Amino acid sequence: MGKDGFARHFRFWSVLTVGSIYLLILVGGVVRATGSGMGCPDWPRCFGQWIPPTEASQLPVGYKQIYLAQRVAKNQKLARTLAGLGFKQVAGDIFAHPTQYIETEFNATKTWIEYLNRLLGALIGIFVFITAIVAWPYWKRDRPVFWLAVASWLLTGFQGWLGSLVVSTNLLPIMVTIHMGLALLIVALLLYAAHRARWSNEEVVLSTQVALETLGEQDEEVATATGLRWLLWGILLLTFVQIIIGTQVREEIDHIASAAGYGNRPAWIDMLGSIFETHRTLSAIVVLANVFVGYQLWQLAVPSLRQLVVGIWVMLGLEMVAGITLAYFALPAFMQPVHLTLATLLFGVQFLAVLAMRRLSRVREKPIRTSMVAQATL
Fold first, then answer.
1. Which residues are CB-contacts of 244 (< 8 A; sequence separation ≥ 6)?
2. pLDDT in tens, the chain (378 residues)
3. Domain boundary residue among 174, 200, 226?
4. Are 275 and 249 in contact (CB under 8 A)?
């Protein structure tokens, strides 16, 4: 297989995997919105079976106590390990959190929603493994691409194990938050690998150099400005923090909903604490920051950057609509997974913009360095 052939294969599998992860985030949001997170009280099996039951009569007598005891034993072992490693606060949270002692009532619908979520996760594991395999030719051509693919595969395995802890701790908030953060890290690694693989194509680099030569001197100075690149990293971090805070808001909503017997939904927003106010205030900052930085990028008149700016603004607009719908229309369940997925898509497009700015700066600097070397040899 030629260089272009294996490059196309790698980009195909890396992009397919990223798309699948976003689909899994959407499905995971559906799991949370429907309260199906504990539809399977054990892991990796579901009620001790590879194909989950459809009726409670298929379960052993006293199944709730059986799986509760298994979860508690697993959590106690985990807590002791974490305490031994110095994470005593986290270990204490696991020991003390009351949700781990809640017995799981069988519900066929919730069980199969969670089971389908796990099947999709297993499929993504296969996709990431194939991505790491097809990245092997980059061992000689561009080694960081290979290591990015392998790191994504290893982290996906760790993510699967972490998912088992999310189940065993009965959706302990800190576990859910770490689970979400790790998913975004895997997305970023795969996007970087796909982006770097694309730029290993010399024709793409050459076409970008030609495009940069058409820019004015002022635009070139802006394109390489350290301040603008730091602003891009800043809004990326801001979006990441906003997503993490959003998972905590979601946890608080779950507690309120459970305490209210899942009734009187319009009152839930008023019952949220300071974490919701922080989330709402930060959302305004995220909007203003993205509009400002997007305008600065637009002024560079680089087609690829302008496409990313449009993507950022579209995701931002849709996210605002989803957020307003949740806040003013009694938190409709169908909008909750959409809100989360749009936020992670915004994070992905922002990260691509960071990579694009970094690459444009390096491509512009390459001819300058070459010229300096040439002059030094005269």
1. 177, 180, 181
2. 555 667 788 989 999 999 999 999 999 888 888 878 888 888 888 888 889 989 988 888 888 888 888 888 887 887 888 788 787 777 777 777 666 677 778 889 999 999 999 999 999 999 999 999 999 999 988 899 999 999 999 999 999 888 888 777 777 777 888 888 999 999 999 999 998 887 765 444 444 444 444 444 444 454 445 678 888 999 999 999 999 999 888 888 877 887 777 788 888 888 888 888 999 999 999 999 999 999 988 888 788 889 999 999 999 999 999 999 998 888 888 898 999 999 999 999 999 999 988 877 765 555 444 443 334 444
3. 200
4. yes
Check whether residue 93 and residue 152 sit in a common domain.
yes
Taking the CA atoms of 227, 233, 237 and 240 in sequence, report the sign of the dihedral they define: positive
**CA distance between the termini of the chain:** 42
Long-range contacts of 238-243 (CB under 8 A, 24+ apart): 238/282, 238/285, 238/286, 238/289, 239/286, 239/343, 239/346, 239/347, 239/350, 240/181, 240/184, 240/347, 241/282, 242/279, 242/282, 242/283, 242/286, 242/343, 243/180, 243/184, 243/340, 243/343, 243/344, 243/347
Full residue range of the structural domain in which residue 92 is found: 1-200
- Rg over CA atoms, the chain: 24
Q: Which of 200, 235, 261 is the last residue of a domain?
A: 200
Q: Name the residue among 287, 298, 290, 291 with its Cα closest to residue 223.
A: 298
Contact predicate 322/342, CB 8 Å? yes
Residues 221 and 195 in one domain: no
Burial class (CB in 10 A: 0-12, 13-18, 19+), 266: exposed
Q: Which pair of tokens denotes residue 284?
A: 């305004």
Query: CA 2 from chain center: how many Å?
Result: 33
